[in-house]
Amino acid sequence: MTTITITKSMADSYKRIECSGHAGFADSGEDIVCAAISVLTINLINSLERFTDDRFTCDQNEDDGYISISFEQEPSKDTDLLLKSYELGVNSIFREYGKRFLNIKFRRE
Q: pTM above the 0.85 mark?
């Protein structure tokens, strides 16, 4: 199962996105759930780098299926929109494939 943790501040701004684990929908290389989550996550990172000036750090471990994106300061409006789009995408995957393959957690700090 893949777990996505979306952390926001008490003021409702994004602070961190963490993805960990493999969905387990199918064998490696054929897992459409894992592929969809990966595409959304990598596209988010690429879009943040290309279309915003916000500073963030990214950590990953491909073997464990782990990636995190952390923001050094409150995200700009452009970054906030990209993050909302990411959240919309992963929620759509969750609605389609349910609790068995994807868990989305929301956290406040």
A: yes
